UniProtKB/TrEMBL annotation:
<dbReference type="InterPro" id="IPR035952">
    <property type="entry name" value="Rhomboid-like_sf"/>
</dbReference>
<feature type="region of interest" description="Disordered">
    <location>
        <begin position="283"/>
        <end position="325"/>
    </location>
</feature>
<feature type="domain" description="UBA">
    <location>
        <begin position="327"/>
        <end position="367"/>
    </location>
</feature>
<feature type="transmembrane region" description="Helical">
    <location>
        <begin position="124"/>
        <end position="141"/>
    </location>
</feature>
<feature type="transmembrane region" description="Helical">
    <location>
        <begin position="18"/>
        <end position="37"/>
    </location>
</feature>
<keyword id="KW-1133">Transmembrane helix</keyword>
<dbReference type="InterPro" id="IPR009060">
    <property type="entry name" value="UBA-like_sf"/>
</dbReference>
<dbReference type="GO" id="GO:0004252">
    <property type="term" value="F:serine-type endopeptidase activity"/>
</dbReference>
<keyword id="KW-0812">Transmembrane</keyword>
<dbReference type="InterPro" id="IPR015940">
    <property type="entry name" value="UBA"/>
</dbReference>
<feature type="compositionally biased region" description="Pro residues">
    <location>
        <begin position="290"/>
        <end position="312"/>
    </location>
</feature>
<dbReference type="InterPro" id="IPR041928">
    <property type="entry name" value="UBA_UBAC2"/>
</dbReference>
<dbReference type="Pfam" id="PF00627">
    <property type="entry name" value="UBA"/>
</dbReference>
<dbReference type="GO" id="GO:0016020">
    <property type="term" value="C:membrane"/>
</dbReference>
<protein>
    <recommendedName>
        <fullName>UBA domain-containing protein</fullName>
    </recommendedName>
</protein>
<keyword id="KW-0472">Membrane</keyword>
<feature type="transmembrane region" description="Helical">
    <location>
        <begin position="162"/>
        <end position="191"/>
    </location>
</feature>
Protein backbone atom coordinates (compact mmCIF):
# COMPACT_ATOMS: atom_id res chain seq x y z
CA UNK A 1 0.00 0.00 0.00
CA UNK A 2 1.18 3.50 -0.80
CA UNK A 3 -1.12 5.04 1.76
CA UNK A 4 0.26 6.32 5.01
CA UNK A 5 -2.15 4.80 7.44
CA UNK A 6 0.06 4.26 10.43
CA UNK A 7 0.57 0.79 11.83
CA UNK A 8 -0.53 -2.27 9.93
CA UNK A 9 -3.63 -4.28 10.76
CA UNK A 10 -6.93 -3.25 12.35
CA UNK A 11 -5.58 -2.15 15.73
CA UNK A 12 -7.84 0.51 17.33
CA UNK A 13 -10.35 0.09 14.49
CA UNK A 14 -13.09 -2.28 15.75
CA UNK A 15 -15.85 -0.66 13.69
CA UNK A 16 -13.86 -0.98 10.48
CA UNK A 17 -13.16 -4.61 11.28
CA UNK A 18 -16.85 -5.27 11.97
CA UNK A 19 -17.86 -3.70 8.65
CA UNK A 20 -15.26 -5.72 6.78
CA UNK A 21 -16.19 -9.05 8.34
CA UNK A 22 -19.97 -8.75 8.59
CA UNK A 23 -20.84 -6.96 5.36
CA UNK A 24 -18.27 -8.81 3.27
CA UNK A 25 -19.36 -12.14 4.75
CA UNK A 26 -23.01 -11.47 3.96
CA UNK A 27 -22.13 -10.39 0.44
CA UNK A 28 -20.20 -13.60 -0.19
CA UNK A 29 -23.00 -15.66 1.33
CA UNK A 30 -25.58 -14.08 -0.97
CA UNK A 31 -23.62 -15.18 -4.02
CA UNK A 32 -24.78 -18.71 -3.21
CA UNK A 33 -28.37 -17.53 -2.63
CA UNK A 34 -29.30 -15.63 -5.81
CA UNK A 35 -33.02 -16.20 -5.19
CA UNK A 36 -32.92 -13.55 -2.45
CA UNK A 37 -31.21 -10.84 -4.48
CA UNK A 38 -34.49 -9.21 -5.46
CA UNK A 39 -35.21 -8.48 -1.80
CA UNK A 40 -31.97 -6.54 -1.30
CA UNK A 41 -31.82 -4.48 -4.48
CA UNK A 42 -31.64 -0.71 -4.15
CA UNK A 43 -34.71 -0.01 -6.29
CA UNK A 44 -35.72 3.67 -6.36
CA UNK A 45 -38.88 2.79 -8.25
CA UNK A 46 -40.01 0.38 -5.52
CA UNK A 47 -39.22 2.97 -2.84
CA UNK A 48 -41.06 5.88 -4.41
CA UNK A 49 -44.03 4.16 -6.03
CA UNK A 50 -44.56 0.99 -3.98
CA UNK A 51 -43.50 2.57 -0.67
CA UNK A 52 -40.98 -0.18 0.11
CA UNK A 53 -39.02 2.00 2.50
CA UNK A 54 -37.19 -0.99 3.97
CA UNK A 55 -35.09 -1.06 0.80
CA UNK A 56 -33.44 2.15 2.00
CA UNK A 57 -31.92 0.07 4.80
CA UNK A 58 -31.20 -3.38 3.38
CA UNK A 59 -30.52 -2.20 -0.16
CA UNK A 60 -27.87 0.22 1.08
CA UNK A 61 -25.88 -2.12 3.32
CA UNK A 62 -24.97 -5.32 1.45
CA UNK A 63 -23.26 -5.37 -1.94
CA UNK A 64 -24.70 -7.83 -4.44
CA UNK A 65 -21.64 -7.67 -6.71
CA UNK A 66 -18.38 -9.23 -5.56
CA UNK A 67 -16.33 -6.65 -7.46
CA UNK A 68 -18.03 -3.87 -5.51
CA UNK A 69 -17.51 -5.82 -2.30
CA UNK A 70 -13.79 -6.19 -2.91
CA UNK A 71 -13.21 -2.53 -3.84
CA UNK A 72 -15.33 -1.13 -1.02
CA UNK A 73 -13.66 -3.45 1.51
CA UNK A 74 -10.24 -2.32 0.37
CA UNK A 75 -11.28 1.32 0.76
CA UNK A 76 -12.76 0.73 4.22
CA UNK A 77 -9.57 -0.98 5.31
CA UNK A 78 -7.46 2.00 4.28
CA UNK A 79 -9.95 4.54 5.66
CA UNK A 80 -9.55 2.98 9.11
CA UNK A 81 -7.06 5.77 9.77
CA UNK A 82 -10.01 8.08 10.50
CA UNK A 83 -11.33 5.73 13.17
CA UNK A 84 -7.91 5.77 14.83
CA UNK A 85 -7.64 9.52 14.51
CA UNK A 86 -11.09 10.61 15.71
CA UNK A 87 -12.28 7.56 17.66
CA UNK A 88 -14.89 4.93 16.90
CA UNK A 89 -17.85 7.07 17.95
CA UNK A 90 -17.00 10.01 15.70
CA UNK A 91 -16.16 7.66 12.85
CA UNK A 92 -19.49 5.88 13.33
CA UNK A 93 -21.27 9.25 13.43
CA UNK A 94 -19.68 10.19 10.11
CA UNK A 95 -20.77 6.92 8.50
CA UNK A 96 -24.28 7.16 9.93
CA UNK A 97 -24.71 10.81 8.99
CA UNK A 98 -23.53 10.32 5.42
CA UNK A 99 -25.58 7.12 5.13
CA UNK A 100 -28.73 9.07 5.96
CA UNK A 101 -27.79 12.00 3.73
CA UNK A 102 -27.00 9.81 0.72
CA UNK A 103 -30.51 8.35 0.83
CA UNK A 104 -31.96 11.81 0.30
CA UNK A 105 -29.30 12.96 -2.15
CA UNK A 106 -29.67 9.82 -4.30
CA UNK A 107 -33.42 10.40 -4.71
CA UNK A 108 -32.83 14.07 -5.48
CA UNK A 109 -30.13 13.36 -8.07
CA UNK A 110 -32.33 10.73 -9.72
CA UNK A 111 -35.15 13.28 -10.03
CA UNK A 112 -32.77 15.87 -11.49
CA UNK A 113 -31.40 13.34 -13.97
CA UNK A 114 -34.93 12.40 -15.02
CA UNK A 115 -35.86 16.06 -15.45
CA UNK A 116 -32.79 16.92 -17.54
CA UNK A 117 -32.51 13.82 -19.73
CA UNK A 118 -36.02 12.34 -19.45
CA UNK A 119 -34.62 8.99 -18.33
CA UNK A 120 -35.98 7.16 -15.30
CA UNK A 121 -33.35 5.69 -12.96
CA UNK A 122 -35.05 2.61 -11.57
CA UNK A 123 -32.21 0.91 -9.67
CA UNK A 124 -28.86 1.86 -8.16
CA UNK A 125 -25.97 -0.37 -7.05
CA UNK A 126 -26.58 -1.90 -3.64
CA UNK A 127 -24.24 -1.76 -0.68
CA UNK A 128 -22.59 0.67 1.72
CA UNK A 129 -21.22 2.62 -1.21
CA UNK A 130 -22.40 6.16 -0.47
CA UNK A 131 -20.57 6.48 2.89
CA UNK A 132 -17.48 4.86 1.35
CA UNK A 133 -17.34 7.52 -1.37
CA UNK A 134 -18.03 10.22 1.23
CA UNK A 135 -14.83 9.23 3.07
CA UNK A 136 -12.86 10.55 0.11
CA UNK A 137 -13.72 14.07 1.30
CA UNK A 138 -11.72 13.95 4.57
CA UNK A 139 -9.13 11.79 2.81
CA UNK A 140 -8.55 14.49 0.20
CA UNK A 141 -8.60 17.43 2.60
CA UNK A 142 -6.85 15.95 5.66
CA UNK A 143 -4.22 13.49 4.44
CA UNK A 144 -1.26 15.24 2.74
CA UNK A 145 0.36 13.88 -0.37
CA UNK A 146 3.77 12.28 0.01
CA UNK A 147 5.63 11.63 -3.29
CA UNK A 148 6.68 7.99 -3.65
CA UNK A 149 8.20 7.72 -7.11
CA UNK A 150 8.14 9.76 -10.34
CA UNK A 151 6.37 8.38 -13.38
CA UNK A 152 7.12 9.55 -16.93
CA UNK A 153 9.02 12.56 -15.68
CA UNK A 154 6.13 14.91 -14.91
CA UNK A 155 3.66 12.58 -13.13
CA UNK A 156 4.43 11.66 -9.53
CA UNK A 157 3.03 8.60 -7.75
CA UNK A 158 2.04 9.58 -4.20
CA UNK A 159 0.89 7.72 -1.11
CA UNK A 160 -2.72 8.47 -2.11
CA UNK A 161 -2.60 7.33 -5.73
CA UNK A 162 -3.64 3.73 -5.10
CA UNK A 163 -6.73 4.87 -3.16
CA UNK A 164 -7.89 7.01 -6.05
CA UNK A 165 -7.27 4.16 -8.48
CA UNK A 166 -9.41 1.80 -6.40
CA UNK A 167 -12.11 4.48 -6.17
CA UNK A 168 -12.00 4.91 -9.94
CA UNK A 169 -12.35 1.16 -10.39
CA UNK A 170 -15.37 1.14 -8.11
CA UNK A 171 -16.80 4.15 -9.94
CA UNK A 172 -16.71 2.37 -13.30
CA UNK A 173 -18.08 -0.97 -12.10
CA UNK A 174 -21.73 -0.26 -13.07
CA UNK A 175 -23.59 2.29 -15.24
CA UNK A 176 -25.14 4.37 -12.44
CA UNK A 177 -22.33 4.08 -9.91
CA UNK A 178 -21.39 7.67 -10.74
CA UNK A 179 -24.71 8.81 -9.28
CA UNK A 180 -24.00 6.97 -6.01
CA UNK A 181 -20.47 8.38 -5.97
CA UNK A 182 -21.70 11.93 -6.57
CA UNK A 183 -24.27 11.56 -3.81
CA UNK A 184 -21.59 10.24 -1.47
CA UNK A 185 -19.18 13.10 -2.19
CA UNK A 186 -21.92 15.71 -1.73
CA UNK A 187 -23.04 14.10 1.53
CA UNK A 188 -19.44 13.86 2.71
CA UNK A 189 -18.86 17.55 2.08
CA UNK A 190 -22.06 18.50 3.89
CA UNK A 191 -21.17 16.42 6.94
CA UNK A 192 -17.42 17.06 6.99
CA UNK A 193 -17.82 20.84 6.88
CA UNK A 194 -20.86 20.72 9.22
CA UNK A 195 -23.16 22.54 6.84
CA UNK A 196 -26.23 23.86 8.67
CA UNK A 197 -25.09 22.07 11.83
CA UNK A 198 -25.71 18.60 10.42
CA UNK A 199 -23.23 17.00 12.79
CA UNK A 200 -25.42 17.99 15.74
CA UNK A 201 -28.46 16.38 14.14
CA UNK A 202 -26.98 13.14 12.79
CA UNK A 203 -24.68 11.47 15.29
CA UNK A 204 -24.33 8.27 17.31
CA UNK A 205 -25.61 8.78 20.90
CA UNK A 206 -23.25 8.28 23.79
CA UNK A 207 -25.26 5.39 25.24
CA UNK A 208 -25.22 3.56 21.92
CA UNK A 209 -21.49 4.08 21.61
CA UNK A 210 -20.90 2.66 25.09
CA UNK A 211 -23.18 -0.29 24.36
CA UNK A 212 -21.37 -1.05 21.13
CA UNK A 213 -17.99 -0.78 22.84
CA UNK A 214 -19.13 -3.13 25.60
CA UNK A 215 -20.72 -5.74 23.33
CA UNK A 216 -18.85 -5.58 20.05
CA UNK A 217 -15.36 -4.29 20.82
CA UNK A 218 -14.22 -7.52 22.53
CA UNK A 219 -15.20 -9.41 19.37
CA UNK A 220 -13.73 -7.08 16.76
CA UNK A 221 -10.79 -5.44 18.51
CA UNK A 222 -7.54 -6.09 16.67
CA UNK A 223 -4.22 -7.01 18.30
CA UNK A 224 -1.54 -4.30 18.62
CA UNK A 225 1.11 -4.31 15.89
CA UNK A 226 4.35 -6.07 16.71
CA UNK A 227 7.59 -4.21 16.23
CA UNK A 228 9.59 -7.36 15.54
CA UNK A 229 7.62 -8.35 12.44
CA UNK A 230 9.79 -7.92 9.32
CA UNK A 231 8.66 -5.47 6.64
CA UNK A 232 7.89 -6.48 3.09
CA UNK A 233 11.08 -7.56 1.38
CA UNK A 234 12.31 -5.39 -1.44
CA UNK A 235 13.32 -6.54 -4.87
CA UNK A 236 17.03 -5.73 -4.46
CA UNK A 237 19.55 -5.75 -1.65
CA UNK A 238 19.68 -1.97 -1.67
CA UNK A 239 15.93 -1.74 -1.18
CA UNK A 240 16.02 -4.32 1.61
CA UNK A 241 18.86 -2.44 3.32
CA UNK A 242 16.94 0.81 3.05
CA UNK A 243 13.85 -0.86 4.53
CA UNK A 244 15.87 -2.07 7.51
CA UNK A 245 17.27 1.43 8.01
CA UNK A 246 13.77 2.88 7.92
CA UNK A 247 12.52 0.38 10.51
CA UNK A 248 15.47 1.12 12.81
CA UNK A 249 14.93 4.84 12.40
CA UNK A 250 11.24 4.52 13.26
CA UNK A 251 12.06 2.46 16.34
CA UNK A 252 14.58 5.10 17.43
CA UNK A 253 12.03 7.87 16.96
CA UNK A 254 9.42 5.91 18.88
CA UNK A 255 11.80 5.27 21.79
CA UNK A 256 12.78 8.94 21.91
CA UNK A 257 9.15 9.95 21.73
CA UNK A 258 8.18 7.71 24.64
CA UNK A 259 11.04 9.05 26.71
CA UNK A 260 10.06 12.61 25.82
CA UNK A 261 6.48 12.03 26.87
CA UNK A 262 7.60 10.68 30.23
CA UNK A 263 10.21 13.28 31.10
CA UNK A 264 10.00 16.28 28.81
CA UNK A 265 6.34 17.35 28.88
CA UNK A 266 6.11 21.06 29.54
CA UNK A 267 2.65 22.56 29.52
CA UNK A 268 1.29 19.91 27.14
CA UNK A 269 4.11 20.43 24.62
CA UNK A 270 6.51 17.73 23.51
CA UNK A 271 10.23 18.33 23.39
CA UNK A 272 10.47 17.94 19.64
CA UNK A 273 14.22 18.69 19.61
CA UNK A 274 14.86 15.11 20.77
CA UNK A 275 12.56 13.47 18.23
CA UNK A 276 14.00 14.53 14.87
CA UNK A 277 17.83 14.63 15.18
CA UNK A 278 18.35 11.41 13.25
CA UNK A 279 16.12 12.61 10.43
CA UNK A 280 17.50 16.14 10.31
CA UNK A 281 21.15 14.98 10.12
CA UNK A 282 20.53 11.80 8.22
CA UNK A 283 21.72 13.22 4.94
CA UNK A 284 24.96 14.41 6.54
CA UNK A 285 25.61 10.92 7.91
CA UNK A 286 25.31 9.42 4.42
CA UNK A 287 28.30 11.54 3.23
CA UNK A 288 31.26 10.74 5.53
CA UNK A 289 34.34 12.90 5.35
CA UNK A 290 37.16 11.72 3.03
CA UNK A 291 39.92 9.74 4.68
CA UNK A 292 43.24 11.52 5.18
CA UNK A 293 46.43 9.89 3.80
CA UNK A 294 48.63 8.01 6.28
CA UNK A 295 51.96 9.64 7.16
CA UNK A 296 55.09 8.25 5.49
CA UNK A 297 57.79 6.58 7.60
CA UNK A 298 60.33 9.32 6.72
CA UNK A 299 58.30 12.07 8.30
CA UNK A 300 58.94 12.76 11.96
CA UNK A 301 56.45 11.59 14.50
CA UNK A 302 54.68 14.54 16.11
CA UNK A 303 55.20 15.24 19.74
CA UNK A 304 52.37 14.66 22.19
CA UNK A 305 52.17 18.39 22.92
CA UNK A 306 51.55 19.29 19.26
CA UNK A 307 48.54 18.26 17.23
CA UNK A 308 49.01 15.52 14.71
CA UNK A 309 49.53 17.08 11.26
CA UNK A 310 47.30 14.50 9.64
CA UNK A 311 44.61 14.29 12.27
CA UNK A 312 41.27 15.57 11.01
CA UNK A 313 40.16 18.77 12.67
CA UNK A 314 37.70 18.32 15.48
CA UNK A 315 34.33 19.53 14.25
CA UNK A 316 31.77 20.61 16.73
CA UNK A 317 28.16 19.82 16.00
CA UNK A 318 26.55 22.97 14.61
CA UNK A 319 24.21 24.60 17.00
CA UNK A 320 20.75 24.67 15.54
CA UNK A 321 18.80 27.91 15.93
CA UNK A 322 16.09 27.90 18.56
CA UNK A 323 12.95 26.29 17.27
CA UNK A 324 10.82 29.06 18.70
CA UNK A 325 12.43 31.52 16.26
CA UNK A 326 11.73 29.47 13.13
CA UNK A 327 8.68 30.75 11.25
CA UNK A 328 5.97 28.31 10.25
CA UNK A 329 3.42 28.60 7.49
CA UNK A 330 -0.09 29.15 8.78
CA UNK A 331 -1.65 27.10 6.00
CA UNK A 332 0.44 24.08 7.00
CA UNK A 333 -0.50 24.59 10.65
CA UNK A 334 -4.16 24.78 9.63
CA UNK A 335 -3.90 21.51 7.71
CA UNK A 336 -2.45 19.73 10.74
CA UNK A 337 -5.08 21.24 13.03
CA UNK A 338 -7.83 19.99 10.68
CA UNK A 339 -6.47 16.46 11.16
CA UNK A 340 -7.15 16.69 14.89
CA UNK A 341 -3.77 17.79 16.28
CA UNK A 342 -3.46 20.73 18.62
CA UNK A 343 -2.14 23.98 17.22
CA UNK A 344 0.87 24.00 19.54
CA UNK A 345 1.93 20.46 18.64
CA UNK A 346 1.48 21.26 14.94
CA UNK A 347 3.72 24.31 15.23
CA UNK A 348 6.39 22.42 17.16
CA UNK A 349 6.33 19.54 14.68
CA UNK A 350 6.78 21.89 11.72
CA UNK A 351 9.61 23.73 13.43
CA UNK A 352 11.37 20.52 14.37
CA UNK A 353 11.07 19.14 10.84
CA UNK A 354 12.25 22.39 9.22
CA UNK A 355 8.76 23.11 7.88
CA UNK A 356 8.55 19.74 6.10
CA UNK A 357 4.83 19.03 6.41
CA UNK A 358 5.17 15.51 5.04
CA UNK A 359 7.72 14.50 7.67
CA UNK A 360 5.81 16.20 10.47
CA UNK A 361 2.47 14.72 9.43
CA UNK A 362 3.78 11.19 8.99
CA UNK A 363 5.38 11.25 12.41
CA UNK A 364 2.25 12.63 14.06
CA UNK A 365 0.02 10.09 12.35
CA UNK A 366 2.20 7.15 13.33
CA UNK A 367 3.02 8.05 16.93
CA UNK A 368 0.40 10.51 18.15
CA UNK A 369 -2.71 8.82 16.71
Amino acid sequence: MFTTTGSRGLYKAPLSKALLLVLSGLSVLLTFLPQYHHLLTYSLLAITEQRQVWRLVFGRLICLDLKDTFCSSLLIYNFRIFERRFGSRKFASFLFGTWVLTALVDLLLAKVFHFLFEYQVDELPAGLLGPVFSLFVPFYSSIPKVPVTPLLGQISITNKSLMYIVGLQLLTSSPFMWLVALGGVVSGMLYHYNTLGIQRLLFVPQWLSHSGAYLLEPLFSGPPPTTDSPPGMGATLDVQRQQRMDVLDQELLLAQFNQARRNQRQGGLINWNRLFPSLRHRRQNHHPEPQQPHPSPQQPHPSPQQPHPYAPPVQLEPTAPPLDNLPVAEDQVARLVEMGFSRLDAQEALRASNNDINMATNFLLQHLG
